[in-house]
Amino acid sequence: MSMYTRCSHCDTYFRVSREQLQASSGQVRCGRCQKVFDAFAGLTSQLPSSAKEAGATSSPEVPPIASGLGQPVSIPPPSVLTMIPSPVEHPPFSELPESGAQGRRGASKGQILTLPDDLFGSGGVRRAHGPRWLWALGSVALAAALLWQVLHLFASQLAVRLPDLRPQLAELCVWVGCTVTLPQLADQLFIEASDLQMLDAAQPGEFVLTTTIRNRAPVAQQLPLIELTLTDALSQIAARKVFRPADYVAASQDSTRGIGPGQEIPIRLYLDTGELRPTGYRLYLFFA
Fold first, then answer.
1. Are 81 and 75 in contact (CB under 8 A)?
2. pLDDT per residue over 237-287, tens digit each?
């Protein structure tokens, strides 16, 4: 079935085929004004009445203006390839391709001409694209930058949510310079028991503090800081000290390994209060 389209710049009508338009995504260049337009926008299956009244007839003497590029396109015989002249005024056809004396005479009289096939190339309007390897290299660089940023910002969170991937995340962090730290879940750490006792009545300033910390979280986490507050007979603060994991973990243990899920850690600290005689104490677990 014949299809028609209209140039949006000079209002010239052309007879085209769907195969031609699909091959160029609808982007064509007008054979009269040489401007690119979207042929799909003005596509119609009916010949406009104004064009019919203009008395457009086929001219068997006029050959096609140009041949197609790429895969050959089936072109009807010249006798049925028509371009309906627009009722508006148009500039001379001097810019049209050379196609012989008869073709030029037909164009100058407003005769029926074909839309050149070479306007139906790949996309009509050509766009410059770089080499594929350059795009691939850029994509790899962007992916590497994204991975670097994710590891530096969210490595520890990913290790908490995906504990099975912790070893792999730790290896990646060695390469990119990040650190996979254990989570800090202070609300999941509890003091199961504690006691402050004087070691020897002859040495009233020497005490021993025993306590047990339990991790109720389903994942391993960092060892907390322990704040010990000593109070006097009036429950007023007499002294305060903060103990870091290296202070209360046995020397044979690695404090950076943290405390495992459901694990308990017994702690025993020896204190010398000097002239201070505490009558009570408080313990507090926290993270810096």
1. yes
2. 999 999 999 999 887 778 788 999 999 999 999 999 988 999 999 999 999
Identify the structural domains of the chain with CATH numbers, from first to last.
1-127 (no CATH), 139-176 (no CATH), 186-286 (2.70.50.60)
**What is the CB-side half-sphere exposure of residue 250 using CA atoms within 13 A?**
5
DSSP H helix total and E strand total for the chain: 6, 10
10 Å CB burial of residue 176 (0-12, 13-18, 19+) is: middle
User: How many C-beta neighbours within 10 Å does residue 227 have?
Assistant: 14
Please report which residue ranges of the chain form alpha helices under DSSP H.
18-23, 49-53, 101-108, 132-161, 166-176, 245-248
Distance CA 195, CA 193 (A): 7
Q: How far apart are CA 40 and CA 244, in angstroms?
A: 74
CA angle 217, 223, 224 (to 5 degrees): 95
Using a cut of 0.85, tell me whether the model's pTM lies above it.
Answer: no
Q: What distance in Å separates the CA atoms of residue 186 and residue 168, rounded to the nearest whole number? A: 26
Helix, strand or coil, per DSSP, at residue 1:
coil
Q: Is residue 59 within 8 Å of 112, Cβ to Cβ?
A: yes
Tell me the per-residue pLDDT of 124-163, one tens digit each, with 9 for 90 and over.
444 445 678 888 888 999 998 888 888 888 888 787 778 7
* Half-sphere exposure (Cβ direction) of 95: Cα atoms closer than 13 Å: 10
The Cβ of residue 133 has, within 10 Å, a number of other Cβ atoms equal to 8
